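Q: Entry one of two.
A:
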Amino acid sequence: MDKKTLRKKYFALRKQVSNSAIEEMSLEIANKSLELPIWGKTNYHIYLPISEKKEVNTEYLLHILQGKDKSVVISKANFETMKMTHFLLQENTVLETSAYGITEPKDGFEVSPSQIEVVFVPLLAYDTFGNRVGYGKGFYDRFLAECETTTQFVGLSFFPPEEKILHENIDIPLNYCITPEKIFMF
């Protein structure tokens, strides 16, 4: 299936999910993440969800990371350069909501993508090969391409995978995707 069709399909599917179901499934996804062989690392990148887009609430994952005393990195998107800058999330990090509804750090201690060992990746859809569909701006594809080849990419989704997504050579596949019911390994 092509990406444009998948975006429409999954935006429609997300609209049908209640806020209470999002919270319940997000907690299940966070708990399932504990089964992954990723917890011996130090530097983890996590996205902060856009609630209007009914994304997986990563607050539960964030609590796990903080409880395990991991370094947590979050990003700030620049829509002029179409790139993200990554900052260490600290107690004194000031967060603000961008014009696009994205909660981001105002500034802080910058972290290179080469230092990040695990990335929790937002997505709309993914397939049985680990190919993902995002919102179409390519922010995460550019970011993931800057990471080391050993970096683990973990998608988070409320839904099971599609059979096959028509993808492009610039697309970076996932290593795992966590749903409330199952972990998919690619």
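Q: Entry two of two.
A:
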Amino acid sequence: MPQGIPNFLDIEFFQNDELFFPTAIAWSLEDGRMKTVVIEPDESWLPQDAELADDELLYLREQGVPLIELARALHEDLPDKTVYTDGLDPDETLVDLIFDAIQMPVPFELAPVEELIPGIDRETLEDQRRDLMFEQSLEPQLPENGVYALLLLAQQEGLVEAQEHPPENDGDGSIDEEEW
């Protein structure tokens, strides 16, 4: 069994026929804190003729954390760690986009949550995670809610001690720390 609370990560992203890039990320720390960030898009992700609503892009540019700051925080928080994801999104590709844009190595290894919780098949884990999100009234499109649901799933499986408070998001784009 891992020491401390397992590290979890969830990334939200924008995708259409022309564009694919991360827009927000959340991750948990071994001491129970969680961080969440709106991501300022790299210019290389936004071709001139691509279709993206001006208000969406303006929000990401104004509220998003620059990639170098995000990478620095991830390097400080998750060096040489195994970080678990729900495995539903193209998380590895999105992480690579972030670190490739600033030409830095990824400081952690991603693994699907089923590697943390052996003996339960992927479909059952996903059903349990989805049920937890519903029970807690968590919006699935918010990455901090995805991480919180994975923390709850780990708690349900006896890997994490019970906590009192769900995460709250102030939405200002900074790297926020929260106790879960």
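A: Comment on entry two: The domain at 7-179 is CATH 3.30.420 (Nucleotidyltransferase; domain 5). The chain is about 35% helix and 20% strand.
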